[in-house]
């Protein structure tokens, strides 16, 4: 734990290397000094079918990083981590859009340890 899910719209597939971006996101975790890195698990998914707003427009896109972590982590740590990941996204996608409007988002969702099971 934690789990990192990177989702991005198909019209951004040419703009970046998902494996490299996951590596940079994992580095943001390492930089906090608060996580056992062997426990941080990341995965990336390209979204082929998507819609932003009311129109199915090829000029609109998004990148969403969702971090699921235990509720026992402090709010201050989660805020620092979220801001660091947003900075990674901004740096990664700076100048990459060629007329495509892209929304960059990070969401940190709580996992209640009472309902988390691992084998």
UniProtKB/TrEMBL annotation:
SUPFAM superfamilies given in the database record: Tautomerase/MIF
Q: What single Pfam family name could you report for this chain, choosing any that match?
A: CHMI
Q: Which InterPro entries match?
A: 5-COMe_2-OHmuconate_Isoase, Tautomerase/MIF_sf
Q: PANTHER family recorded for this chain?
A: 4-HYDROXYPHENYLACETATE CATABOLISM PROTEIN
This one is known as 5-carboxymethyl-2-hydroxymuconate isomerase
Q: Which organism is it from?
A: Silvimonas amylolytica
């Amino acid at each position: 734990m934690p789990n990192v899910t990177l989702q991005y719209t198909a019209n951004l597939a040419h703009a970046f290397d998902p494996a490299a971006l996951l590596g940079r996101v994992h580095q943001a975790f390492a930089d906090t000094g608060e996580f056992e890195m062997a426990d941080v698990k990341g995965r990336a998914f390209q979204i082929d079918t998507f819609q932003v707003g009311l129109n199915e427009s090829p000029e609109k896109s998004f990148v969403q990083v969702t971090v699921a972590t235990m509720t026992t982590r402090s709010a201050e740590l989660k805020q620092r981590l979220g801001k660091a990941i947003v900075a990674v996204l901004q740096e990664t996608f700076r100048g990459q859009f060629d007329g495509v409007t892209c929304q960059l988002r990070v969401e940190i969702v709580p996992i209640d340890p009472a309902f988390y099971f691992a084998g």
